Amino acid sequence: MLIRIPAPHEPVSSEITPRAVYLNRRTALAGLGLAAASPLALAQSAPGGGKLAKLPGARSAAAGAVVLDKPTSYADASSYNNFYEFGTDKSDPAARAHTLKTRPWTVVIEGECAKPGRYDIDALLKLSAMEERIYRLRCVEGWSMVIPWVGYSLSELIKRAEPTGKAKFVEFTTLADRAQMPGLRSGVLDWPYVEALRMDEAMHPLALLTFGMYGEVLPNQNGAPVRIVLPWKYGFKSAKSIVKIRFVEKQPVSSWEQSAPQEYGFYSNVNPGVAHPRWSQASERRIGEDGLFAKKRPTLMFNGYEAQVGQLYAGMDLKRNF
Ligand SMILES: Nc1nc2c(c(=O)[nH]1)N[C@H]1C(S)=C(S)[C@@H](COP(=O)(O)O)O[C@H]1N2
Ligand SMILES: [Mo]
């Protein structure tokens, strides 16, 4: 398959602020005596639930870090979840994840690196400055959301571990504790939940080590106390409640690949041109827009992040490497 790889600086259409909107903002800002530093500075913030600890982040300046789509409501983002460790219904994680204990929490760094170690979650929180990123999240099942995450680039942590020349992949392991996670009694997946990235994917500035959303710490059902978020990949690559990060030479087998290799590949980049064997991936339903007359949205190549991540896959056959 031929895909068009734009130059890295070329913005995707969804990120171009219409000129009229931009000019209106400038006028409004001028009236307030404020500088119009960036049209993104005014991108909509969305309120959290108000019950969890605040975790603010400065609006990220990374290319593609803030989409202008209207954020999904906090109520939807925290009640319609996939977190199979708590059950397979969308409502299970919100109903059952209160049993997850997020303190004390340790993240182990190991494998091919000069500085392996263990980070207490509260030390990990302070490792780098918190940023707010408004990302689209596209689930392989055909729905999507827009979520203001809070965290910092995964690359900040990886750099500190000093991976060796043998480190070609990074593997993420999620907590698997039967006492806290009732879903582990089911055999839907081989526990623990494992995901992995190629090193250059993990080092991409958009790969976010995530601690919060909507200006607050993550609700348990969204992967507290720490998860990754990879906006250009199907949602299942964004492993929740991570306890181990391991640098390895050989390409790991992720839990979903293991369970159904013909359906879930290692890369799992959002790709409207490659159907899942059982359904099309050409369009999606945006959660919160599901009224009777709501139109489905076309799914974008790399979930709309092609300008930022396309180069990572230049020359690869994305039908074979799905
Ligand atoms: N540990 C773990 N991480 C997981 C999952 C899971 O079942 N277990 N589900 C994935 C899937 S399929 C999606 S779509 C996203 C959903 O994240 P959200 O509930 O925060 O929107 O989490 C991903 N991370
Ligand atoms: Mo998903």
Give the low-pLDDT segments: 1-42
In total, the number of domains comes to 1
How much of the polypeptide forms β-strand, as a percent range? 15-25%
The portion of residues assigned to helices is: 10-25%
Bound molecules: ligand MTE, molybdenum atom
Distance between the termini: 11 Å
Mean pLDDT: 90
CATH class designation: Alpha Beta
Q: Major beta sheet, specifics?
A: 8 strands, mixed
CATH superfamily: Oxidoreductase, molybdopterin-binding domain
**Rounded radius of gyration (Å):** 19 Å
Structural features, described:
With 322 residues, the chain is α+β, with helices and mostly antiparallel strands. The protein has one domain: Sulfite Oxidase, Chain A, domain 2 (Alpha-Beta Complex), CATH 3.90.420. The chain is 15% helix and 20% strand. It has 8 helices and 13 strands. Strands 1, 4, 5, 8, 9, 10, 12 and 13 form an 8-stranded mixed sheet that branches. The protein has a 5-stranded mixed sheet with strand order 3-2-11-6-7. The longest helix has 14 residues, at 19-32. It starts with 18 loop residues before the first helix and ends in a 13-residue tail after the last helix. Residues 82, 139-141, 235-236 line the site of molybdenum atom.
